[in-house]
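Dear colleague,

Following up on yesterday's call, I've attached the two folding results inline so they're easy to grep. Please treat them as preliminary; we haven't cross-checked anything against experimental data yet. The first protein's sequence and structure tokens come first.
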Amino acid sequence: MEEEIKDLKKRPEDQNNKLIDANNEKESLGSGLEDKEEIIRTKEEKIKILNKRLQDQNDKLIDANNEKESLGSDLEDKEEIIRTKEKEIKILKKRLQDQNERNQDMEKLHTALHEMNRKIESLQAQNQQCKGSEEGPEDNKTEMDEKVEAVKRKLRNHFEGGLNKYVLSHKLPWNLFTQIFKMVLITIQLVMFGNRRITFVEYVESNNIAMKHLFLLHWTPDFETMPYPPTTGPYAIYTSNDLVDHINFAMKQFSHTESLTLGPIRFPDGGFDMAKYLYMCVEQCKEGNVLKNGTYSLDQHVIKDCLHLIPERAYNNGSQETETKFDIMAILKKNNKSLVFDRILKIELKFRLKSYRVSVEKAVNEPECYRIDGMVVFDNTNRNGQMAVHLSTSLKEFICGAEFDDVSTNDSDRFGIVLDIFVMILCVVSFSFCIRSFSIAYALFQHTVDEVKDIPKVLNLICSMKFEFVDLWLVLIIINDVLFVTGSIVKICLENKHAESSSENYDICALMLGIGCGLAFMGIIRYVAFFAKYNILTVVLKKAFPDLMKFLVTTTILYLGSLLCGWVVLGPYHIKFRHLSTASECLFSLINGDEMFTTFSATMTDNTVIWYFSRFYMYTFLVLFIYAATNLFIAVILGTYDIIKKPDFERRNSLQIFYAAEDDQNKEKKNEDESVSEENSCFGCFGKRTCRSMFEKFFGRKRKSSGEDYHQLEEVETEC
């Protein structure tokens, strides 16, 4: 019986707590709109049910009290507990009365809420009428704002990337496709031309080496290699007898060229007239004498004498035959000339031959005929006792003037011509696209200036960023288009015998095609730059360029000072510092860590001061440029890279920020709308946290919820 009394006393407390929570919930929902009225009615019904239950419990409590009075003789020891419970019951009744008063206040608040909703509806109706009376949906903006927005849209459409333009307007980026297709074709064209040019260069070099073996005395293959440092000294002569022997040997060998050579080398004009003889020119001082007192009398005016070296024919008594005598001294004596060896500055032996080249792998091609202009030079201009000897040849193609059997054009040559024509067509198309882009950009700039001329702030921005309308990538594309068209024309002329197949013409064609190819590949970066993750190199270099230039000013000053110091001091004792150009190449190689030990060990001197200076100079240069300058150079680039990788780094310039402002606002508004729709999805105005706190207030925070309560909590969170 006592347990039932406790349960009866505990139930009013629970019901009272539920009433309090319900009233709190009702108050929290009082600021809602009409869509919450149904919920409020439901809660009021629940409150009525709870009141009815409370009355039932009170009736039961009265019955329990009556029963307690009937059992009072048996429960005298529990009277004190009952009195305490009666006090608690009085308190519960008082709370119930307070709750009823709160319910009445809530009904008044609900009535006021209805009136407020009606006022809101009337205000909305008035607002709609005001909007309907205006001229259009954008009439709240001034005419000036409309102009600015129109300019922004045009600028945004112009500067948009090719992929974004395709996504927005579904227009194919023909310029991009043209550049990619052109890049493929010019790569094939360049490979074909490179193979042809290498074959020609190998023929020229091999021909020059053959001439050296034929006409230079004591020439060996050791002089043909390029080891560094060289294993042999320069090819030179040191005595007057050696000079005479070399000239006589060259005369003899040249006269027997056709019988000695393994290649198809012949004398021009059938060897008649003077074609079989060398043409010698001697440059020497006009006068030079050594007086008895040891002084010199020297006239530095240079005189030049030239003559054909026609060998003498003499009768040999031993063989009883007439023989050709190759003696330079006899030839000079016959022509009343002489060689004064201490006045000689330079001797040139000139000759001319002809040859033809046949491609065995392309037997159907017409042979190529070349005129070989050669010259053997004995150089004594330094007058240091060493006369350097070198032979140079140049090949020039000429029309053979003969008939050849089975001569036709093969498939590869036809493909090369067709490829060259396609490349020129693509370059012309690419050139027209670029010119069209420039004209559109200029027209857009003029139109933008005309539209915003009444808005000083925007006009100043457009005028200050006018060079942004000039796309330098398009300038690169235009230059490589011009180079490729010109180079392709020269290539067609060379391959079809309309121009000489000389090293000079091949070099001109190679320069045009090579530079054009490099610029074409650089132009492709323009389209890669539209993707932020792939143009990191160009962005870093563009951002770091001013700092790099400032850094290189100081570095260049130090480098030039070190270069001149090393060249002047170490030049006479170090092979790598002998010339200013080789000294610069040596220092630049040291910065990159190449040939350090060779550079240290190549100082040849007995002067202790020079030797120690060379060590101090090289160690100082290496520490200054490898450990300091190079690392600082890398640090500048890495610092710029770190700045670019930061989230708050703005890659856009002022013009891009200007015309992209509207897009940024739309994106931010869209993101805010999405976040609000995600957070505020419970009853239209409360977030997930509000829903959970509301549920906890309604069902109680500290008490344990039943399974039904948890199920209701999950439903509320699902709705959120």
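Below is the second protein, in the same order (sequence, then structure):
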Amino acid sequence: MVAEVSSMASPSAAAITLPQAFFALIWILVVLFYAANTIGCWLRPGSEHTQYRQVPPAGDADKDDALEAQDNSEENPANVADSPRSASPVSFHFTKTASVCRSVILLGLLLFFFYAGDVAHWFPRGLRVYSRDIFLFVYVLIFLAAILSLELTPETQKNADQILNRHQTEEWKGWMQVGFLLYHYFRASETYNTIRIFIACYVWMTGFGNFSYFYIRKDYSLKRLFKMLFRLNFLVAVICVVTSNEYMLYYICPMHTFWFLSVYVFMAIKSEWNYDRRIYIKFIVYFLTVVLLWEIPAVGEFVFSIFGPYSPLPILAYKNSLKEWMFRSGLDRYMTLLGMLCAFFYPMFDSFIRHLEMKTGSFQDIIKGHMIKITILVAALIPTVTWASHILLAMNKIDYNKLHPYLAFIPILFFIYVRNITPLLRRVNLHMFAWCGRITLETYIAQHHIWLQDNAKSLLVYPPLANYPMLNFMFATAVYLLVSELLFQITNVLSDELFGTRDPKGTKGLWGWIHDTPMSQAKWITIGIWTIATLVTLILSNILRL
């Protein structure tokens, strides 16, 4: 028995707050707007303008020419906006508007599910009861299922065996997220120390990934900044409105937002220093800043008080205190710096590994390369095993937390080396975990409301499955993952419409439209957007004070 179901929770008569009513009103207006436009399109005379002309079927010999003609056609959806004589501009713009409207409507329905699950409590609560046997059984079973989704990147594909490639890092995030979620669901307190390492890995990836992006692309634009802030905070912001929860309840979001901003500032200020020895000065300043903020708690609390419980925008306050923020962010305070250092020295590490794996040369040189790899592995294994046996598995969480900020780098660097030790391992990835890794933000946020309840302290139980805890776990997980995937897609649609896509043929988004608009019009559009953003900020500020 995994969980004992508590008495049936009756629907709550919780009062609707002003922000919730405001959000519901916006949703209703979007529904009405979408319905009116849809009906108008169908009732409009000559409604065939809503259909795009398709290129006639072509034989094999003409297929490439036909595809090229379709791509360049003025009536192709990707090009019609730029066409000087578009026959159906209303249709094209409605297509984009309809996509946004559908996303907002679906988002509203999903958020109503969130409200019903964890605010109105229309579902029974389940008690979390830990069983090591069941916890390990489920985790191992998921790993076995993931093995069935194993993919091997062909050697002929570009960067097939790249160190820390995208598929690998997403897989890494995925299996850690599975452990993190099961830790919450089954209340597996004995795995707390391991979960702390998982979270440190996420923060490491924030430093590694964002440093790599800025270093390679040199894109320090406000568009990139706001697009990342939107990705990290849009979903949690609307959920805070719907549930009246504090932002810090979802501490992963403010924590990753802060560390992303720290990388952005690090790379954007004196960006020309990023490509010569002066970057070491920046690393030293960054390190000293972290030391000042967290090794001297009074300094950190003073600096972050601008977002504390008594500030106009108390986004870092939780239960009228900054203690939660200082604790959560401080546990992994050096991991972002470690990630940036790994990204900076990545070319050297990559060249070193490639040199050891050289396929040309004498037999002795090839053997020597393998022996060096094994020697490094053994040398890294000794401190890792010592750390695991004497600290990770031996200490309670209070004592462990005192050492975690200074020793978490050991398992992270060891895993990176082992996972990339051979070209074959780098080419292999488990697709199921890679998929989970792409929706980690959504699964983290959604778990509080449609998988668990009461700030992740009890289970959400579907009434027909109240006496079947494992069946309830299976069904609730399926619904929860489906909703998380939908939220991920919705966020991407809205992000693309706001900030545009990377594809030159794709939409430029609202940001690009403002950029291309004459200055006399753009300034009023910008003022309007910032006015709306200010109102939303004030609403969220009001929620966080409740």
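For the second protein, one point worth flagging: Residues 7-13, 47-94 have pLDDT under 50 and may be disordered.

Best wishes,
A.L.
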